[in-house]
Amino acid sequence: MDLIDLRSDTLTQPTDSMRQAMAEAKVGDDVFGEDPTINKLEAVSAKKLGKEAALFVPSGTMGNLISVLTHCGRGDEILLGDRSHIFLNEVGGISALGGVHPHIVPNNSDGTLPLDLLEKAIRHEELHYPPTRLICLENTHNYCQGNPLTPAYMQEVGALARKHSLKIHLDGARIFNAAIALDVDVSTLAKDADSVIFCLSKGLSAPVGSLVCGTGPFIQTARKMRKMVGGGMRQAGHLAAAGLVSLECLVERLQEDHQNAQELASGLTAIKAIDLDRENVKTNILFFRVNHPKIQPDNFLKRLEAEGIKILLIEPGVFRAVVHRNISREQIRHTVEVAKKHLGE
Ligand SMILES: *Cc1c(COP(=O)(O)O)cnc(C)c1O
């Protein structure tokens, strides 16, 4: 059996139709705004997200950075979750490069931020305080079991932001997973956000690329910020071509990943030594612990690897498995069997 690589959905390989579209793409110099394939991807993305305009960027990390730089100046403060990707996994770029001050609010286990704590964190005008400008949310929430935030929650945060004249940025790296899981249109989830990014390079299987979406003027400034951080690309339509295939052909099938994640969750939950909150597996991401008298977490990891299965030990004792297009139902069943073999029933 092939390697079963559950470390991340970024490991997805491009499809044959993507490779063909990439080879045949009409391209131009995108810094001059002359790459027809990128222009098309940006237009299609903006329309899907229900925003006026969009910007193609090399990564989700750059998309988040550019968005924060566009909303905030040096010394401004943003509110974001203590489990958020921007806070944990983006090398502190907003502070290092933007001089933006992160104010952390503890995430609920479902990825939401408690509204009362969020409101309490907003600064009033006072000599000693940095001005609060922006609330950042994440959907689906990677480090909260890939949980999707609902339109109702987005609306509540939207009302709070409007009340205090704040903007909302949505890190929607996996917003299409959220839309599929909740059976709502992706634009409904983006509606209350002033800016939103999403990734083509995860479950959507493109090799590279993310989009920033927002108002026309916002994207105009974001384009300048992209140039500033070195993200202005030239004949990158070859990459955008893959992204167009993602949006046209690979969104609906995310459902399969979610079903496979359910299968994996139910198989693993049946193993006594595995502690997994099955009820809260809603998309393609599972977190679990292993409590075995003889097998330590890193030993379990090694045993799986020896059997051709890779998962991530994301923090001491906590494993993450991410289901994606290159993981079949049969491989899911095999993974459960191997886990059982080592941990017992
Ligand atoms: C992957 C991810 C990003 C950024 O992705 P890169 O393209 O790897 O920079 C941002 N936010 C979340 C929630 C992610 O999972």
Kindly describe this structure.
The protein has two domains: 13-249, Type I PLP-dependent aspartate aminotransferase-like (Major domain) (Aspartate Aminotransferase, domain 2, 3-Layer(aba) Sandwich), CATH 3.40.640; 253-343, Aspartate Aminotransferase, domain 1 (Alpha-Beta Complex), CATH 3.90.1150.10. The strands form three sheets. A seven-stranded mixed sheet has the order 2-8-7-6-5-3-4, sandwiched between helices. A four-stranded antiparallel sheet has the order 9-10-13-12, with helices on one face. The chain is built from 14 helices and 13 strands. The protein is globular. It is an alpha/beta fold and 345 residues long. 42% of the residues lie in helices and 17% in strands. Bound molecules: pyridoxal-5'-phosphate (PLP). Pyridoxal-5'-phosphate is lined by residues 59-61, 64, 85, 138, 142, 171, 173, 199, 201, 210. The site of pyridoxal-5'-phosphate has 12 residues, from α3.
What descriptors fit this protein?
single chain; 345 residues; alpha/beta; Aspartate Aminotransferase, domain 2; Aspartate Aminotransferase, domain 1; 2 domains; 7-stranded mixed β-sheet; 4-stranded antiparallel β-sheet; 14 helices; 13 strands; 42% helix; binds pyridoxal-5'-phosphate
